[in-house]
Amino acid sequence: MDLERSPLALPFPDMPPIAGVTLRVARAGYKKWDRADLTYAELAEGTALAGVFTKNVCCSTEVEMGREQVKLGRARALVVNAGNSNAFTGYRGREAVEQIMAQVAHHLDCEPSDVLVSSTGVIGVPLPKDKAEAGVAAVLEADECSWEQAAVTIGTTDTFAKGATVTAMISDTKVTLNGIIKGSGMIAPDMATMLGYIFTDAAVDHGFLQHCLSSANKRSFNCITVDSDTSTSDTVLAFATGKAGNAPLTSFDDAGADAFMAALDDICRQLAHLVVRDGEGAQKFIAVTVTGAENDESAHRIGFAIANSPLVKTAIAGGDANWGRVVMAVGKAGEPADRDKLGIAFGGIWAAKDGLPLADYDEAPVAKHLEGREIDITVDIGLGEGRATVWTCDLTHGYISINADYRS
Amino acid sequence: MDLERSPLALPFPDMPPIAGVTLRVARAGYKKWDRADLTYAELAEGTALAGVFTKNVCCSTEVEMGREQVKLGRARALVVNAGNSNAFTGYRGREAVEQIMAQVAHHLDCEPSDVLVSSTGVIGVPLPKDKAEAGVAAVLEADECSWEQAAVTIGTTDTFAKGATVTAMISDTKVTLNGIIKGSGMIAPDMATMLGYIFTDAAVDHGFLQHCLSSANKRSFNCITVDSDTSTSDTVLAFATGKAGNAPLTSFDDAGADAFMAALDDICRQLAHLVVRDGEGAQKFIAVTVTGAENDESAHRIGFAIANSPLVKTAIAGGDANWGRVVMAVGKAGEPADRDKLGIAFGGIWAAKDGLPLADYDEAPVAKHLEGREIDITVDIGLGEGRATVWTCDLTHGYISINADYRS
Fold this sequence. Notes:
Catalytic activity (chains A, B): N(2)-acetyl-L-ornithine + L-glutamate = N-acetyl-L-glutamate + L-ornithine; L-glutamate + acetyl-CoA = N-acetyl-L-glutamate + CoA + H(+)
Strand order of the largest sheet of chain A: 15-14-13-16-12-17
EC number (chains A, B): 2.3.1.35, 2.3.1.1
CATH class of the largest domain in chain A: Alpha Beta
Shape of chain A: globular
Number of domains of chain A: 2
Oligomer: homodimer
Helix content of chain A: 25-40%
Largest sheet of chain A: 6 strands, mixed
Organism (chains A, B): Aurantiacibacter gilvus
Order of helices and strands of chain A: EEEHEHEHHEEEEEHEHEHHHEEEHEEH
Family (chains A, B): Belongs to the ArgJ family.
Keywords (chains A, B): Acyltransferase, Amino-acid biosynthesis, Arginine biosynthesis, Autocatalytic cleavage, Cytoplasm, Multifunctional enzyme, Transferase
Largest interface: A-B, 66 and 66 residues
CATH architecture of the largest domain in chain A: 4-Layer Sandwich
CATH superfamily of the largest domain in chain A: L-amino peptidase D-ALA esterase/amidase
């Protein structure tokens, strides 16, 4: 199926090289498509590794193995297979992953556990070992490629390549963080068919890198949803090659650690937003901010109840400031809320306060806001100080078309 | 918006009169539609009342008041307003309900608390008191109407009138239960924009009637979902006039109590299925049965994770036996499950067992099953004895069309 480029797409940024990272792509032919589908990143010796993974209990072999590798905290290479998720494929799926790890480890003369593997695509079909072997052999011989080529190659139903780049100063050393990500459906609270990779030349202890990534993840990837479904393969990995030459960061007591954390927060949020911007069928990018909840976690859950509500998402698709559906979604979240204290605003214009429609509510500017591509919904619960923002997209005919026809 | 009759509609059954129940309809003109929109049921003195209501914390005034009336356990009349849900309307909404109760109570010379009121339709607009007053005055003068006319009149976005009738023997007395229901979207675990009314001539103590209704509700209305959204107004009421002349049922120790409970279970399940059959945009009726879960509650939650998954529902819409999406949905439920013990069947044909696709899996009969209107998905978790069945419908372009355009 040929998908049109999302109207919410952003152009791919200029991304500088990262010392210690070499990218290559090749064609393994996992699906009948005429494009590269195997991405390889070679990483300098000494690269630190961190990762966060799907909470789906029926996760893929790659995720199970990745969790163990993250504990070791080091990486020499990353292989991403696109077109086949290798999930729910039992021992045959595991053998294919182990084969890839061994093949790359042999080439680099490293431990197989230093080779990270991700796979994305159809569930339930074991990754074909012969295609994987030939694909890996080809990619090891391939020329170096650009960040954009790598971002295109990890994609599946994505309609645009997604990347972001930020810098930070650690003492007087400038470090760069580059990220690429894929994912467009099955995006939910605990992440999604989303594979994201962040590469930095900063020197960061792997334990501290994990701490920073887990923290950034809570404010970014765990705050987006497209359709409430949660993939079995979601993965975000961070690799720090240390080639920038800064004194390695080990805790927030180190100079520059705060700047690094801020940069990581920034790139994770940029990448997360790009995934929502490619939400299947998305026509509008929606930010839902909840204030006045009993606490931040409660605000987060209320935000997700709104962001996952098909009735709210279809109302936004229809340009309808239907705050009644927002009330409904607040009420179904099961969190503390009082109907008679609720306030609801669209684009900063309050439609209801203290549980009642505002007498002087002027729908015209709200209707104009809803005609745009970027929609803001704010809900004030009126109980406490808890707040959270989550991001989603509208629910349109495009979502149905993509998902009723995908596999076949 | 004119909606086409659901392809899953069933014909309205022949429903006999219920002694002690008189139905009438009138036009209050809550919306600009050329049809009756106010339904009135007059109930004999001594009628017992039971009810179950939405768990949405932002519920309507009608629901708040209904909960109190159910504690009293008696009813003389029911008024149902269609076209305006009166939810999120503050004191003005409450005044409108109290006015209706007083008006009917004056006519019947009963307590206002003996008059039940339900409202369904758009949220956030107070029920207009002048229209309600004129509508109630008209309905009290109207001729008696049929069950089908009442079922049509309580509807909003419904595409067909929904009713069911069953009988039971209490000792040597035959009793009848008639039910009508409305609802087609916003149907979710804890009920939905669903208003259901069950009338019986059986004599049943109100406490026991409540016990039976709560019990039947768990196996029927709480086992259906259309879109995971939960209305602020959901209500199912049961009225027992006692005119059949049986010895009043007060507990399961009474002769005939089991037969009555079975009949109530039957009619609640029939009514619940009718709501799913009118799910917005529904083309297929889907039964999801989960076996082998750790316990029944866990099976229920897993069933709902599947039944609410947009990716599963769009796959069924597309006639795709995409059991990988079912695995994903099992995994996201957050319930005990082991990927390598899962079995998944469509229409009784196993596609996967013990976490692997079956070697001899023949997709042809499954594809044929998925072409039909009635789809069965069975998931065996392989851990324990817990089981549950929930019902839903597919997710189609029709859902988007209806909900992106509804209010305006």
